[in-house]
Design brief:
Layout (H helix, E strand, L loop, with lengths): L17 H15 L4 H9 L4 H23 L13 E3 L4 H30 L12 H25 L12 H18 L2 H5 L1 H14 L38 H26 L8 H21 L4 E3 L1 H10 L4 H16 L1 H8 L3 H24 L5 H19 L1 H5 L3 H7 L2 H16 L6 E6 L6 H15 L3 H21 L6 E7 L3 E9 L12 H6 L1 H12 L5 E7 L2 E9 L1
Antiparallel strand pairs: 1-2, 3-4, 4-5, 5-7, 6-7
């Protein structure tokens, strides 16, 4: 695997210093603390006592720790092999709130377990869904994750409550901007520890500036008040453990499981492309393993008494931004989750982190996701079909953010599917991709006449085919150049009688070109003929032409069939 351009980069199998691992794990936890409010909201909706609420949050954290290891370490078919650890998710929030009001936490746990089983059942089908996930749709998913994460971050900054006391002059927007400047500066102009821990450093800088540490010796946010209430250490209480089911809630929870599978696929694709600069297509085996691990994580959480989980897109963006992908970080994150589960006071303190600083973290990580998504989309040639898939998919997803009233008018079950920009945009793109496959072809043909050897004309025909296939631009450029060069060589050095028929086919992994003509085949020698052989006879010149022709593509062959010669050019894709 090639290493990305920046030096501060650690791959999944690398072993960075322990200090870097711990710093990375800590900033992952800090970036995800806002998601701990979801189990809090569900427990409150169920009318749970403070002790039960604390245990519900702790058990969710313990399940997240186990799920982190399942996701990062591939055990047979389980796991993506990447650092996309699971956290509490908004995808299960709406149906869980409904279930909590109807049947309390036992109904939440039972229906979450059903959703997990549905996601687990989806996982084996991911490999067979490769045609539904071409790179442009993978790019749309990554773009939507980035844009919506950034939008949430901006909204958190703008809606943060104003400060009080002597630091009131520092507005949340100013504090978030300062933290974002520190994160960006460290990420751009430093290497090593500072670059890896840029998010944590920016967050701490924001805390120091906004809190004016000095006179009173500590932060003065009202949000931190009461953060130390309750026991420092406590084993989770499982008195709420129980499972019940309601058939009327199966559809919204199943939709949540489907949405979780889609979001996990996006997170895995983000990390695949971030870890391999030569990435060209989604590894559906890794995606399927990630979906299976995600379903198992949610199932484990429901089994021990926690809320549904999903692979964190924030974690994927943070890993892509900092270049830290080591699985050792997953181990550290799992340990921190266990500690937070057993020391609820620490977790409560982290959940009181000012919204503007969490928003700055989301904005920072979203930048890399947006650029990554653009690169994935533009790596392929787009015809009219694919242009509409990308454009309408993005617009559908963004419409959820731009017109929230449209979502509020939906029922709770439909809101789970259409109320999330990522899910609605992805489903729209997938549906359009299925529709536009009607009439699409993976092959094409044209004829090159002896008097029509213009390379621009040939390359234009090949570009049209490549756009229809959604092929990589760099490969299609090689194909067009190769056909033009081959036609030139054949007309000048082979005994071609009449035009050359060109047939092209594409199967995502190869572009195969077959050029057929009336006349004898051209020899493709492995050894370049000597200067003396070339000068001595026309046969030497033809051998040189055949030698050069054999280097036009990744694999070249020439044979005769029914009186016609066929030159086959195979280009890896």
């Amino acid at each position: 695997m090639s290493v990305p351009a920046h030096a501060s980069w650690w791959g999944p199998a690398d072993s960075p210093p322990t200090a870097l691992v711990l710093l990375s794990a800590l900033q992952h936890i800090v970036a995800a603390t806002t998601l701990l409010t979801y189990p809090l909201l569900v427990a409150q909706a169920a009318g749970a006592s403070p002790a039960t609420t604390a245990s519900f949050i702790s058990l969710t954290l313990l399940a997240a720790g186990a799920g982190t290891l399942l996701q990062a370490f591939r055990l047979g078919p389980v796991g993506s092999g990447y650092l996309c650890w699971p956290t509490a998710t908004v995808l299960y929030l709406l149906p869980s709130l409904v279930a909590a009001r109807i049947g309390g936490l036992p109904l939440v746990l039972g229906m979450t377990l059903a959703a997990a089983l549905f996601e687990i059942a989806l996982a084996p089908t991911m490999r067979r869904l490769r045609p539904l996930f071409p790179p442009e749709i993978a790019g749309v998913i990554v773009l939507l994750v980035g844009i919506t994460s950034g939008a949430i971050g901006v909204r958190m900054i703008a809606s943060a409550p104003p400060h009080s006391g002597p630091e009131a002059a520092l507005s949340p927007i100013a504090v978030a901007s300062f933290a974002l400047v520190v994160m960006t500066a460290l990420n751009v102009w430093t290497t090593g520890v500072w670059r890896i821990a840029c998010v944590l450093a920016g967050t701490l800088a924001g805390i120091l500036v906004s809190a004016h540490i000095g006179g009173d010796g500590g932060p003065s946010w009202p949000a931190f008040a009461g953060a130390s209430d309750g026991p420092l250490f406590a084993l989770p209480d499982v008195s709420h453990l129980g499972w019940s089911f309601d058939a009327t809630l199966l559809i919204p929870f199943a939709i949540g499981g489907l949405a979780a599978a889609i979001k996990t696929s996006g997170s895995v694709v983000i990390l695949q492309s971030a870890c391999d600069p030569r990435w060209v297509r989604a590894d559906m085996r890794s995606v399927g393993g990630g979906v299976l691990a995600d379903g198992l994580s949610t199932g484990l959480s429901a089994a021990i008494g926690g809320l549904g989980l999903n692979a964190s897109s924030v974690a994927a963006g943070l890993a892509a931004a900092t270049g830290m992908h080591s699985r050792r970080v997953a181990v550290a994150i799992a340990l921190v989750c266990v500690l937070l589960g057993l020391f609820p006071a620490i977790g409560l303190f982290l959940t009181r982190m000012p919204a503007e600083l969490l928003g700055a973290t989301l904005v920072f990580s979203s930048v890399y996701l947006i650029v990554n998504g653009v690169q994935i989309v533009t790596s392929r040639m787009l015809d009219a079909r694919r242009t509409f898939v990308v454009g309408l998919g993005l617009l559908a997803g963004l419409s959820v953010e731009l017109v929230p009233a449209m979502v509020e008018a939906l029922s709770p079950s439909l809101r789970t599917m259409f109320g999330t920009p990522l899910v609605f945009g992805t489903l729209t793109a997938l549906g359009l991709n299925l529709v536009f496959r009607i009439g699409a072809t993976r092959s094409g043909a044209f004829v090159v006449e002896p008097q029509q050897r213009d390379s621009e004309w040939i390359e234009a025909r090949v570009n049209g085919l490549g756009a229809g296939w959604g092929a990589r631009r760099d490969v299609i450029e090689r194909v067009g150049f190769g056909i033009a060069q081959a036609a030139e060589v054949l007309f000048d050095n082979a005994e071609v009688d009449g035009p050359i028929d060109v047939r092209a086919s594409f199967d995502e992994f190869n572009v195969v070109i077959r050029m057929a003509w009336q006349g004898p085949p051209l020899e493709l020698p492995d050894r370049r003929p000597s200067a003396e052989e070339i000068i001595a006879s026309d046969e030497g010149a033809r051998r040189l032409a055949g030698f050069l022709l054999g280097r036009i593509a990744d694999r070249v062959s020439c044979h005769e069939r029914s009186g016609r010669s066929i030159l086959t050019l195979r280009f890896d894709h």
